[in-house]
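Attaching the record inline, Q. Sequence:
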Amino acid sequence: MKQKILKSRLTSLILLCMGIVMIYVGVHRGEALVVMNKAIKVCMECIGIG
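Structure, as predicted:
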C-alpha cells in the first residue's frame, strides 16, 4: 500500500515537472504571444468588432 502511494506521488511529480518544462519552453519560443493574439481575434469576432 505504501509503495503504491509513493509510486503515485512520484508519477505526479514527474508529470508536474514535465508540464513546467513544457510551459517554460513554449514561453521562450514565443508561443504565449501567438496564443494570446489568436484568443483576441476570436473574442473580437464573437463580439462582432473584428
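The two ends are 57 Å apart (CA to CA). Helices lie at 2-28, 31-47.

More tomorrow.
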